Amino acid sequence: MLIESTRNRHVKEAGALRSSHNRVKAGRVLVEGRKAVLDALRSGVEPVYALVRAGFGGARANEPVLEELERRGVAIHPVTPPVFDKISSTERSQGIVLVAQEPRWRREDLLREGDTRPVVVLEELQDPGNLGATLRSAAALGFRGAILTRGTTDPYGAKVVRAAAATVFRFPVLRTGENAAEILAWLREHGFVPIAAAPGGDPPEVALRAVGGPVALVIGSEGRGLRSETLDLVERRVWIPIEPGVESLNAGVAFGILAYVLSRQLRG
Asked: Domain containing 214 — which CATH number?
């Protein structure tokens, strides 16, 4: 049945999930776009229902995502274009959103016995594109997970999910609500060696070599970097040499470079 009213309960919930506060409260996320929805489904996300703009089923490009939704037994609700536009968070929507359960990761997911892979700690990272790119790189380069401090942007916001290519649905991302000091203390208790990306550090091939334990790579916010009190708690600092006159690399790019160097060293 075609949904024509913005007062419909599914439409109201999907619209509310554009807000981080409402996502956290409901324990659900909103995924938008053909590729993002298909990637999320293939990543094992737990779907609740989908809303599609009327006529969505008539385009061949939409067949793969519809087939996957049907294979998973997901309810698909068509809505009128004006109603769908109230839900969409993009200027050129592809006409589909998925409401899904937020993944629930635990600290124990990062503590499997014998696992020597690194983790990344993100302190108050604000830019959704940077966060999404960082999570995507971390998953691609063999990190075991990411831990987000209090004040870091929501990893399940629409821009993060798109930038991460649905990595957030299969890669452990812990939102602790704690500051970096509390997180680093817990990591040290479990044998991790915190290394901060910060000016004045050694180049990656030096700072990331022979650290004596699994690495916790700590990345700060785009503008301020890491807090001084956080820097006091790390074992080492690492910095990427850049050409004079260039202010800095953004957080996502810097992390990708450091993560690549670290992954190469771990593989010998």
From this structure: 3.40.1280.10
How many angstroms separate the CA atoms of 81 and 53, rounded?
Answer: 6
139 with 78, same domain? Answer: no
pLDDT in tens, 178-191: 999 999 999 999 99
Q: For residue 124, what are the CA distances in angstroms to 3, 83, 110? A: 40, 35, 21
User: Which residues make Cβ contacts (< 8 Å) with residue 145, sequence separation at least 6?
Assistant: 105, 109, 110, 119, 120, 138, 171, 172, 173, 174
Domain that holds residue 251: 107-266
Q: Which residues contact 250 (CB under 8 A, 6 or more apart)?
A: 127, 130, 222
Helix, strand, coil % (nearest 5) of the chain?
A: 40, 20, 40
Q: At what angle do helices 63-71 and 34-42 cross, to 10 degrees?
A: 30
Q: What is the DSSP letter of 129?
A: H
Q: Are residues 183 and 131 in the same domain?
A: yes
Relative orientation angle of helices 251-266 and 128-140, to the nearest 10 degrees = 10
Same-domain check for residues 56 and 96 = yes
Give the integer Cα–Cα distance in Å for 102 and 26.
Answer: 9
- Based on the fold, state whether residues 83 and 111 are members of the same structural domain: no
In a shared domain, residues 46 and 116: no
Whole-structure pTM value: 0.90
